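Checked the freezer inventory, then went back to the computational side. Two predictions to log before the end of the day. The first one is the construct we discussed on Monday; recording sequence and tokens without edits.
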Amino acid sequence: MVNDQRHAAHRQERIAPPPAQRAAPASPGENGVRDERDAGPGRTADAAPGRQDTEQELSFVSPQGELHRVLARFGPDRPRVVRPPAVARPVRFKDGWKGVQVRLPEEAAGDRAAYTLLEAEITAALALHRAFGGTRFAGLFPTPVGHDMNTPSPFVLYAVPRGRPLAGLTEGVSLAGQRVVERDLVLAVRLMDLIGLVHRGIVPGAVRWDDHAVQVWDLGSVVRTGRPRVPYGVPPFASPEQRAGVGATEPRDALWSVAQVMHQLVTGRPGSPDGPPADLAAHRSLAGTLSPVYARRAEDRPTPDALLRTLVPEMAAEVAGVLLPDPLEQYRREFDETRRRKHAALALRPHARAVAPPPEDDGPATGHGHDYGGGQAPAPYPTAPPPHPTAAPGDFTGYEYEPRPDRSRLRTWISGGRTSGTTGPDRGRSTGGNHR
């Protein structure tokens, strides 16, 4: 669950710092909230204009379901850190703990698609944390510390991110480093596959690198395996079938994205959006391991398990036994089904005319209502179909293929260009990400 809507008297409340999974304070530039284009030499994000120095009370629900209230200070928003319209800002608790808050500004919180993506991000972050939080693979994903979706500006708190996005790197990554990036990305896809998740948004802006390991962000792009594909993503990083929105989502969609990220990392240029890149044979480091992943059709690509066994057989064997049975799996499935029915019941469009309930007759009403001690049960929900076709919530995103007023922010987040403070003719042009 991403919301705890019980009354405060029924929740276990602790007025204390969050759980003990706290990262050590990172040096400037490693916490994911410094914008290298805005900060001058020796200047950190905390010294940027607009810093909020006053302490504020922050309440959130931890991954363990406990309510916390802490005093916190916030730094300025950094739009380039996360996918728009979400923004990220550094946060420091009174006890010295540092992290990052990913939130929707109040003006964007009413956007149903944006709200759905943040809700999906929290759900995916919690699922990954529960599955792999106690293993050596936990660092591949952001560490959730808390969340609150019931505020004017919904948010999720993470521990300090590692490294910098691949999209923002201006220096090349060594050949040995490229092999580690390749291994970690395939490993992340395989781990998600184990718990039935697929990442549809693996792009250079969502992959962080600290010279030792990878960390995969933008968990709002994660969906369950087997969900019908909808048009999502940008070429060449999104697979052809994903951009077309045909068939069912599967892990080999994410492997295509991994191969495209690696092509740009190695060559400094985007690959082909529809098949193997024309220069694949010229780069043996790509052709030797990822050649089959560039297949246009998902069924012609290897599975994450098969690819990981080719790259690092010993790690593939370890991964196969890392997942312990989830004793709450049955209840999670029941919750998901209940939420699906709830969303389906609320899928009426705002302008749809409500259908009047049938008049009461001489018999008591039966159906979905509950008797709260007031006598007769409420009338059942109307069964007549809505006057307009509806889609289940979450089957669209609104970011890739619907016209939006400022798509340049999304493009630059993916490719590593500028997003704000640029008004010249090169606005939106990528200034990084070439690694030759």
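The second is the one RB wanted added to the comparison set:
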Amino acid sequence: MELPTESPLRVEALIALSAIAQHGSVQAAADASSLSAPKLHRQLRAQEQRLGVALVTTSARGSTLTAAGERLCEYADTLIHAVTGAEASARQEHRELKGTLRLQAPQALIEPLLLPLVLRLQEQHPVLKIYLLADEHPSRIEREAPMHLRLMRGPLPGTVYARPLGDLRIGLFASPHYLNKAGRPENLNSLARHALIHCPREGQAPVWSLAGGQSLRFAPRLSISASAAALRAAMEGAGIVWCYALEARHACAQGLLEPVAEPLWPSADTLALTYALGIRAPASVLAFLELATPWLRTQLAE
């Protein structure tokens, strides 16, 4: 049997018809739902035009279903239940996280931002497998399968699909012990006289971009390629480190670090979670986005 290309029935109109039959008038049906009486009326009239038959008659005493409306209403509840069940099933499948997801991010953001999220989601979805890869390893990324999702900061290419997450600050931090001994810098010149810890990424030169377009080129006292180790060195009193404020948040809360020369901090970058294929992305990617986006936004807003 050849199927019609488009059904004349609309689920919204069936819901309206069923509600009117149950409550006795368009206004009563509207009061019992989230729709307005004019919208219910328009849905019914549009359905009648598509079918070419009257479904409801209205008088001062209320609304009454015609014979055609009663026959259609006999099937409406079954159809509504079937559609609602199918939608719920589709949403549940969309929320299921399974298979393998590949995520790419700046290495410094993996531990404080992505790792807690991934562990939470894997606890809720035991069959989910996650592959985290740092931006700082491009040769490995090229050899591996394409990434499903990526944390990106700064302006984004116009061709990517993205969920904005919030602002990502970069700041200067040092231990109270170091600052009590060496003093607290107030400007660029006094900062340059301090012991500075450099965390090079992909051969990045020891240059810090600061507020107002200023930059500081320096000879680092200590260079460490791992940001977590550079942060630890700062906690131990080795000097001042330039890092994401998110990385230093817990150490600051514990009194192990404190912000330094905040007027010199550069403007915040934007951070977004990007993904390929848009709504055609795999269900697990879309489900991850729905679960991860609000959590990541909360973390950046703290």
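For RB: The chain has eleven helices and 14 strands. Residues 1-5, 88-94 have pLDDT under 50 and may be disordered. Let me know if you want it refolded.
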